[in-house]
Amino acid sequence: MSVTARRGAMQRLFDRIMLIAAGRNALWVLALVSFTEASFFPIPPDPVLAAIVLARRERWLAAALVCTVASVVGGLFGYAIGAGLYEAIGRPVIAFYHLEEAFNTFQQRFNEWGAWIIVAKGFTPIPFKLVTIASGVVHMDLTTFTVSALLTRGARFLIVAALFWAFGPQARAIIDRHFNTVMIAGILLIVLGFVAVVYI
């Protein structure tokens, strides 16, 4: 497939996402992505959140709140998997994403940092499911886990939404002019998130 054809396919996908982001079901889609990403889905909700704010700037705060609540609820589901269903579900999920070494590292860091590990890693592009499942395995205090997840995910999504609210028109213009570069950068960021869990 030629570069032009690939760009055309990606552009159509982006246009489709923007149509969904402007629609009445956009927040439900965002909630679903945010919930599942916290327990088993590979794609972070930030691109969907950004698309919603780009499509309808007045939704920025509502979108950030929906994203936060759904992520924390999904995190509680991931915690439950780690606490009671690790062998049946948690281990296969970790193995599917090849996060075994990162999982062991998280457990070691938890012994050093405690709940601060959630605050630190909740801001990064690492897979949040790693944090939630591992927190369940080590039986972190549930209240501490919930508050930490709420603070770190809420801060992250509010920052993302606020930035796209403030710079939305400029961001859309950059995306339109440099579409391939932006898409490659987004994919690279996700990949780096998976790589970083081994070293951070």
UniProtKB/TrEMBL annotation:
Gene Ontology annotations for the cellular component aspect, listed alphabetically: plasma membrane
Keywords for this protein: Membrane, Transmembrane, Transmembrane helix
Domain VTT as annotated: residue spans: 48-163
Pfam family, one: VTT_dom
Positions of transmembrane segments: 60-81, 113-138, 144-167, 179-199
Name listed for the protein in its UniProt record: Membrane protein YqaA with SNARE-associated domain
